[in-house]
Fold Polyisoprenoid-binding protein YceI.
Amino acid sequence: METIQFKIDSAKSQIDWIGRKVTGAHNGTIGIKEGNFIINSGKIIGGKIIIDIATIKILDVTDAATNAQFAGHLASDDFFSIEKFPTASFDIITAKQLTSNSYYLEGNLTIKDITHLTGFEVKLEESNGNAFSLAGKLVIDRTKYDIKFRSGNFFKDLGDTLIYNDFDLDFNITAQTSKN
């Protein structure tokens, strides 16, 4: 069979995020700017996801002023340095098929121009031969990407202001080919 590129449909794809702290958690969404999956003989063999960090939204903070302040803090150098690094990326190096509809994707995750090898399991749902959806959760240690604000690894006596290092990215992606 031939190798086919499936382009990510940004309008139908997003990432749900959760960050936890001693006193609770925050959650929101991040857009996917673009990307693709390479399929050969019906199996994922590669691809790239460009994450649009500049679109990060906070869903659990309903007061507009507090939400804007929090969003500004996430955009700052304490967190994602969005002005300098508006995107992040995940480059798939290997895709190991686990079952008929699940894969373990391993690749290079780059945030703030810092790259680490990581991986996560995804479930694949093919809607037809020209499109599919994919979902999976990637857990990231933010301190590996120079996001150290209120991390217990770098600051002492934080008490109930401590923010846990791991955060969750739940990918929900739709991709399609232009092939008829």
